[in-house]
Amino acid sequence: MQRWVYDGVKAYSERMPAQIQMRVMEIQAGKRSARSNVGAAKEEEAGKLLKKAAGADLTIALDESGQAFSSMELANEMRDWLNRTPHVAILIGGPDGLTEACKSNVDRLWSLSKLTLPHGLVRVVLAEQLYRGWTILQGHPYHRS
Asked: What domain range includes position 73?
């Protein structure tokens, strides 16, 4: 990832209170080449993602076919997460997305956008939206509706 991705995620994660920790856990991308099978790379990534998320109370995969939330709806979701499922894992697919098997092995699918976004940008947008949701729950003026 480019430096701006790490800087962007860090900027929002540092604003979060101590009881909400955003951690990025990277996995090695599946091997790809001009002659390799993209499906095999996606399968490899799916296995690694699901293994990393195995201890979570709630596992969410980001996918354009998932449920879209407004900022207020996301804040309400976050309230529920904090009260009932405090350890949430959010999976971001690799360059070719997530396998159907991976998507069917999570608790829910969430769509940040109908657009296809680059992986790094998704990280920053996700961090900002989680921060925004938290500020809404706190009545902080960051979010203007």
From this structure: 3-23+39-138
The average confidence (pLDDT) of the chain is: 90
Q: Edge-to-edge, what's the strand order for the sheet holding 88-91?
A: 88-91, 58-68, 108-111
28 pLDDT band, cuts 50/70/90, is confident
pTM reported for the whole predicted model: 0.90
- 28 in any annotated domain: no
Distance CA 42, CA 35 (A): 15
10 Å CB burial of residue 4 (0-12, 13-18, 19+) is exposed
Residues 6+ apart with CB under 8 A from 135: 141, 142, 143
Torsion (CA) 4, 128, 14, 48 in degrees, nearest 10? -70
Does the residue 144 lie in any domain?
no
Domains of the chain: total: 1
93 is a domain residue: yes
